[in-house]
Specification:
About 50% of the residues lie in helices and about 20% in strands. The protein has helices at about 15-25, 50-60, 70-85, and strands at about 1-5, 30-35, 40-45.
Length: about 90
């Protein structure tokens, strides 16, 4: 199955790089594509548990799904994820 999720706090290539690397490491997740202009992440997955895992991974990195709570802590996490993505 394929899904596209609109996320918050996506700012640049560093963010996209971190998201791509982290999601690609997840089992059953493939074809990860991040679109900075549309603030979306697209990917293929095998079952609903995989989809839930992707959403929770994005949130833990500081990129909650659009419409979800976007606390100051999550915004701060996204800046750290962004910096890590720029370095690697």
């Amino acid at each position: 199955m394929k899904s596209t999720i609109k996320i918050q706090n996506l700012k640049c290539y560093g963010c996209a790089n971190t998201i791509t690397k982290k999601l690609t490491l997840l089992e059953n997740i493939s074809d990860v594509e991040v679109n900075n202009d549309e603030q979306t992440v697209s990917f293929r997955y095998e079952n609903e548990a995989d989809l839930v895992l992707v959403k929770s991974t994005l949130q833990s990195l500081g990129y909650p799904e659009f419409g979800e709570t976007n606390s100051l802590g999550e915004k701060a996490k996204s800046f750290v994820s962004c910096a890590v993505g720029r370095i690697s």
